[in-house]
Amino acid sequence: MSTKHDAIVIGLGIVGCACAWALSRRGLRVLAVGDAPIGGGATAAGMGHVAIMDDSEAQFRLTARSSELWMALRDELPSEAAVDYCGTLWVAADEEELNAAKGKHAFYQKRGVRTEVLDETSIAEAEPNLRSGLAGGLRIIDDSIVYPPVVCEWMLAEVVRRGGAVRFAHVTGATRTRVQLDGGDVIDAGVVVLAGGDVSARLCAWLPVRPRKGHLVITDRYPGFCRHELVELGYLKNAHSHAAESVAFNLQPRPTGQMLLGSSRQYGVEHEEVEARMVAWVIERAKLYMPRIGSLRVVRAWTGFRAATPDSLPIIGGRDGVDEPVIATGHEGLGLTTSLGTAELIAAILTGAPTPLDAAAYSASRDFGGHDGH
Ligand SMILES: Cc1cc2nc3c(=O)[nH]c(=O)nc-3n(C[C@H](O)[C@H](O)[C@H](O)COP(=O)(O)OP(=O)(O)OC[C@H]3O[C@@H](n4cnc5c(N)ncnc54)[C@H](O)[C@@H]3O)c2cc1C
């Protein structure tokens, strides 16, 4: 049977768009299919922080490579993508957290990432609206922010320019080379990639991916109120623990002057509603670090769902001998950052294109500890 498309990518979030774009850049004719707007899903809900992380070597390698790829792309992206190299400031509330910051600094330095330890005085100078008495922090100099929906639009425009196509439809079934759409249409391709975010398991039931709800809050415009993406060091405990609910202070200055405030994590909540209790928790947590936050006018709050895996690493690649799509999901709270590294890996797996990344740590065949994800 002749195939019309070299590849079909399911999902028009940042991971699907990046995969479609990377494959089309390597000469494949790609059809991108999704049941939500381009850049919708978790992508529309996320903060847009591109962060190099150090929780594990595998996470470091994927985030660091992705950060390089974001850096290389910055001049190609339209200005509406709002790329800003504001850096991340991890805030240490006490000596114990400052020691953790110093440990992270050593980790990053060894691997060539530009970081700087701040003491009590220098963090107060860097961010005057932080409360006094904080122990210090760690600045990750080359971390940035971006507005993902615009990047998605730009990527798919490139896909179309290279002979690919975009189709808005719900996929009801998928194999390695075929998708079935709501309404009955069947489309064949050389290969199918599933980038369906937190609901990917509806097409591939074994996937150990669970939705993890998050709330974000955005204020009116207060230019200069904050200069870096600020994150409390306790954030890592929250992101890693599998507690039912948690909130950590995370503030991002948008290029508009608005302050974007996060972030919460909840398992077991499937509805999208904004919960007043969670919004209040996010704001109260932020006030512990920046008391003046309480005087800013909040204009909007929303929710989104991260795709969480048992080992906090994404699932990238196909399982041998199983007639199912190649997988690109499970990026939890780092999918914007890691979309470009993921796409590079998918392109390497499918076309043999070079990548410095070793796919093994993200393999769909790895041991998830018997976790069935539900
Ligand atoms: C509150 C919050 C804050 C975050 N902040 C950051 C951050 O600062 N930095 C960062 O790196 N990451 C962040 N993230 C994570 C990031 O947003 C996600 O990891 C990323 O957007 C995932 O992209 P995706 O393309 O895999 O999934 P999605 O964006 O969810 O896209 C998947 C798409 O696939 C579609 N789809 C699924 N199944 C089907 C089907 N059967 N047929 C057709 N279409 C289908 C869905 O409708 C959806 O549109 C945050 C997430 C949240 C919730």
By CATH's scheme, which homologous superfamily of the largest domain applies?
FAD/NAD(P)-binding domain
How large is the count of helical segments? Answer: 9
Q: In terms of per-residue confidence, which ranges show pLDDT below 50 for 5 or more consecutive residues?
A: none
**Total tally of structural domains:** 2
Name of the CATH architecture of the largest domain: 3-Layer(bba) Sandwich
Beta-sheet strand percentage?
25-35%
Briefly, what CATH class of the largest domain?
Alpha Beta
**Series of secondary-structure elements, N-terminal to C-terminal:** EHEHEHEHEHEEHEEEEEEHEEHEEEH
Bound molecules: flavin-adenine dinucleotide
- Measured between the Cα atoms of the first and last residue, the distance is 38 Å
Largest sheet: 8 strands, mixed
Describe the global form: globular
Rg for CA atoms: 20 Å
The pLDDT mean sits at: 95
Q: How much helical structure, as a percent, in the residues?
A: 25-40%
| Total number of beta strands | 18
Q: Which fold name fills CATH's third level, the topology of the largest domain?
A: FAD/NAD(P)-binding domain
SSE class: alpha/beta
Question: What does this 3D model show about the protein?
Answer:
The protein is globular. It has two domains: 5-64 and 147-205 and 311-362, FAD/NAD(P)-binding domain (3-Layer(bba) Sandwich); 85-144 and 210-308, D-Amino Acid Oxidase, subunit A, domain 2 (D-Amino Acid Oxidase, Chain A, domain 2, 2-Layer Sandwich). It has 374 residues and is of the alpha/beta class. The strands form three sheets. Strands 1, 2, 8, 9, 10, 11, 17 and 18 form an eight-stranded mixed beta sheet that branches. Strands 5-6-4-13-14-15-12-16 form an eight-stranded mixed beta sheet, with helices on both faces. It is 29% helix and 28% strand. The relative contact order is 0.20. A hairpin with a 4-residue loop joins strand 10 and strand 11. Flavin-adenine dinucleotide (FAD) binds at residues 10-16, 33-36, 40-43, 45-49, 170-171, 195-197, 199, 203, 214, 216, 262-263, 304-306, 329, 331, 333-337. Residues 10-16, 33-36, 40-43, 45-49, 170-171, 195-197, 199, 203, 214, 216, 262-263, 304-306, 329, 331, 333-337 line the site of flavin-adenine dinucleotide.
